[in-house]
Amino acid sequence: MQLENHTFTDAGEHAALLSGWEQQYFQLDCGPFHGRLQQVGADGIHVFYESVNRRIVQQGSTPSDMLVFGIVLDSNSPVTFADRSVTTDSIICARANREFFMHFPGETALLGLGVKLPLLERHPELAARLESSMSNKNPVIPLAPGAREQFIALWRYVTDEVFALNAFAQSDLAQRRVTAQILDMLDALVESGIRDERADITWMSHSDVVARAHEMILARPLEPVTVQELCEALRISRRTVQTSFRLVTGKSPVEYMRAIRLNHVRQMLRTAPSVDLTVRDAAQRWGFFHSGHFTQDYRELFDAMPSDNRPR
């Protein structure tokens, strides 16, 4: 049975240790990053708690063989998942292998639950109810009153059980107990916790603007995208672009796009030895040609010098 606790000072390392996920985390807020990840895995089940102290954007896809559910525990403003606003009275319900962008405000915590498809095949009644609740294309569904608190209470109980079982019970027994309890937790949620949904069209539109801009950044790393180019490509006004970024990311378009490029430089510096890649080369690959401005922007975002992040 998998039982892990991690703390992080780098958003990319945080993303890499979430079991079974293909994704990247990009830090947007300035200052030292602190993240926490607790995850439990047993016989087709993955339960995880994660928290971050800085605003980040996640890009990736859900595991290819798993349905995923998530509840926001703490957040100063709405989380965004796949163009939808996720408040504390809603739940993420995502199918396997779904591509997504997810925006985390600073000081945010999330509880996630993944169930592998082969396990659900052994529980056809639960699988049918899950399919019914996820029959529409909306990956964020409102919760019925009290469902969130019930789900969190059950999660805490199961987590305590996991530590006890891991210490005192045989491995097979521990796995069976944990799996049964988590399936029961999910069954209770589907049975009475999900209510009729209404899509937030306005939030979807704003989030889509940010997602399309993000793709433009990745498509041309050497040449920073301008706000005017976004307006022309997306056929929207400058005011709409500015409003979309402020609502979804808490940043201006320029701040957001610069942070994404800086995160990519940081990833390169953390993985490539200095003999193979200089700081200047890494910076220039993402459009930073003025070394003084680059160093200042990098230090402001990550509270570190570029040379501090080279492999030892």
TrEMBL record:
SUPFAM superfamilies per record: Homeodomain-like
Sorted UniProt keywords: Transcription, Transcription regulation
Residues covered by the HTH araC/xylS-type domain: 211-312
Molecular function (Gene Ontology), one example: DNA-binding transcription factor activity
Keyword Signal: no
InterPro entries associated with the record: Homeodomain-like_sf (IPR009057), HTH_AraC (IPR018060), PchR_regulatory_protein (IPR053142)
Keyword Methyltransferase: no
PANTHER family: REGULATORY PROTEIN PCHR
Name of the protein: HTH araC/xylS-type domain-containing protein
